[in-house]
Give the backbone structure.
Amino acid sequence: MTDVQITLIRVLQDQAAWLAAPMLFFSFLGQPEFFLLVVALLYWCSNPRLGLRLGLLMGISSGLSVALKIAFHLPRPYWVSPEVRALASHPSFGLPSGHAQGAVTFWGLLAADARRRWFSLFVVALVLLIGASRIFLGVHFPVDIIAGFAFGLAVLIGFLALEEPVGRRIAALPISRQILLAFAGSIVLALISFAAFAAIGDWQIPASWAAGAIQQSGQPINPLDPGGAVTAAGFFFGFAAGAAAAWPRQESICITGKWSDYLLRYILGIIVAGMIWFGLGLLVPPEPVLAAYILQYLRAAAAAAWVSYGAPVVFARVYPAGRA
C-alpha cells in the first residue's frame, strides 16, 4: 500500500512539475496562519460571532490533530522514500493531515454559516485541492489526507451539534467562570495529547526517518515534541478567555467606518499580534524544559487574547463613535 502511494506521489511530481506554485498556494489556504488572518478579519471587521465560532473551532481542531498525530505516529512520505521530493517540510507526524482536517473544519463552518449552494460547492472543491496539494508537495500520503478529511468532518459535526446548547449554558455563567472553563478546556486539550504520548510509551523515532527527512529537505524532524500540543491549548485558552471578557460589550467588537478605517485597524491589529508572538518567542528557551513549554502556552494565549479581546478594546477607544 505504501509503495503504491509513493509511486502516485512520484508520478504527480514528475509529470506535473508546473503545479508546484499552485499547490503551494492551495496549501497556504489550509495553513493555521491563514485561518487566523481570516478569523481576525471577521471578528474585527465584519462578523464577530462567526469569527468567534471559527476561532474556537480551530483551537479545538488543532489540539485534537496534534493528539491524533502522536497516537498514530506515522511518517511523512519524504521521510521514508528518496523518490519523493520534499517541496515543503514539517517536523510533525503525518497522519492525519492537519491541513486536510483544518480545511474541512474551517471552510466547512463557513459553508454551514453561509448556506449557499454555490459556496458549498466552492468549499468542497477548495478542500479537495488543499488535500491534493499536500500529496503533491510530498508531505502526506493519500491515506493521511483521507483520515484528515474524516476527522475534520467528525469535529465539525460535533461542534455544530454542541455549540448551541453548550454555548447557551456557558454564556449564562459569570465571566470569571467562563474564563476558568476556557482554562480547563485548554488543559483538557493538552492532556489528550499527553495521553497519546503515554500510550506510545518508550517508542522511538526510527533513525531512517530522521535521516531521510534531513536528506530530502535539509530540515530536522522532532515529532515527539509536545510544543504543538501546548501551543494549541494556549491559543484556545487565550481566544476563549478573551472572547468571554469582550462579549458582554460585543457592540464595540466590530465598529463601523470607512473601508480605509477597517484596513488600518486590521493591519495594525495583525502587526501587534505578530509582535506579541515573535516578541514572546524570544523568551522561549531552545531547550525542551518545563519553562519553555509554559512560555509557549503563554505566548499563544497572549496572541490569541489580543485578537479576541485586546484589539477590539483598543479599536473601541480609538473609534468611540459609530458602533456596529
Observations:
- The radius of gyration is 20 Å.
- The mean pLDDT is 90.
- The longest helix spans residues 142-171.
- The chain is about 75% helix and 0% strand.
